[in-house]
Amino acid sequence: xxxxxxxxxxxxxxxxxxxxxxxxxxxxxxxxxxxxxxxxxxxxxxxxxxxxxxxxxxxxxxxxxxxxxxxxxxxxxxxxxxxxxxxxxxxxxxxxxxxxxxxxxxxxxxxxxxxxxxxxxxxxxxxxxxxxxxxxxxxxxxxxxxxx
Length: 148
What we know:
- The chain is an alpha/beta fold and about 150 residues long.
- Helices cover about 20% and strands about 25% of the residues.
- The chain has 3 helices and 7 strands; from the N terminus they run βαβαββαβββ.
- A hairpin with a 6-residue loop joins strand 6 (about 120-125) and strand 7 (about 135-140).
- Helix 1 packs across helix 2 (about 40-50).
- The N and C termini lie close together (about 10 Å).
């Protein structure tokens, strides 16, 4: 497990970018953390690290946002805030998305913790508002050449 402290949204994005540059196809990135912790901010950095030019936004109302670009891994960015059971997860079509050739990014992963696909990188973010963020990373062995 690795731990970091970020003191601004830019630092949170920069850490996400480093992880995005190391993520492998078929990896599930699972965020654990409260409202306003910076999960979407982290995802903006992750997408940039993968080379995706898209403007990342929260998938709260859409359930999933997709980001694609030629020569880059696709990202499926899920919000599981309202999904609280395996049955509810099944009804979303979650298992129909192509994880093998992409990266799943899941906000509110604690709501589907028992259903998270492997390989899994777990990112826990604490803090909100103007507070520094404490970010822990578990499963870093699933990343290519990531030294922390």
